[in-house]
Amino acid sequence: MTVRVLLADDQTLVREAFAMLVESAPDMEVVGQAATGRQAVELVRGARADLVVMDIRMPDLDGIEATRLIAADEDLAGVRVLVLTTYDTDENIVDALRAGASGFLVKDTRPAELLDAIRTVAAGDSLLSPGPTARLIQRFLRSPSAPETGGPECLSDREREVLTLVGRGLNNTEIAESLGLSPLTAKTHVSRIMGKLAARDRAQLVIVAYESGLVTPGNI
């Protein structure tokens, strides 16, 4: 499957560099470029994009509000958003996750990591790096509008183990290796957990893992 990518960034050189990188991958194509969040929202419909690589700080409409509009549109239910940010200076990343982003990366990430992130998010997973995740969740849990999900009490022992590893930032392959499972079994566990907890995506599973005390910033 070819992943159809829309790039949203107000810096032309950045967009062009990302476009060249994405086009170099045999399983991806750039279907549009936007210089503002409003352009991104407008283009994502016509371009039939699978994923938007979204900057946060843009004129007219910022990336957070653009993400919120995309996530709230039922006609765009299959579109995923991957936020790129200068994490150490941008305090809006928590709002981006709340708005519906499925993952985030810092802009100085390596090219191969960006391509892998696009594949991960397009496949339906969320991308949450362990180190930044701890800091993000600490701030997120202090927010009065964190998403409402169920608690881990309804989970089996194995599912609680899987949830703990999700909270530590492991992907399905890493979870499978850690627990001696097949990747498909690990993915099935994650899907069932999301269903039981009424979680929209992996990002919310991480929040539950922190809220319930299965994971704390000191033990990742």
Automatic annotation (TrEMBL):
Signal peptide location: none
GO biological process, alphabetically ordered: phosphorelay signal transduction system; regulation of DNA-templated transcription
InterPro entries reported for this sequence: CheY-like_superfamily, NreC/VraR/RcsB-like_REC, Sig_transdc_resp-reg_C-effctor, Sig_transdc_resp-reg_receiver, Tscrpt_reg_LuxR_C, WalR-like
Domain Response regulatory: 4-122
Cited Gene3D superfamilies: 3.40.50.2300
Domain HTH luxR-type, residue spans: 148-213
One GO MF term: DNA binding
Transcription regulation found in the keyword field: yes
Keywords: DNA-binding, Phosphoprotein, Transcription, Transcription regulation
A Pfam family hit: Response_reg
Annotated positions of the 4-aspartylphosphate modification: 55
Name this protein carries in UniProt: Two-component system response regulator
Taxon lineage: Bacteria, Bacillati, Actinomycetota, Actinomycetes, Kitasatosporales
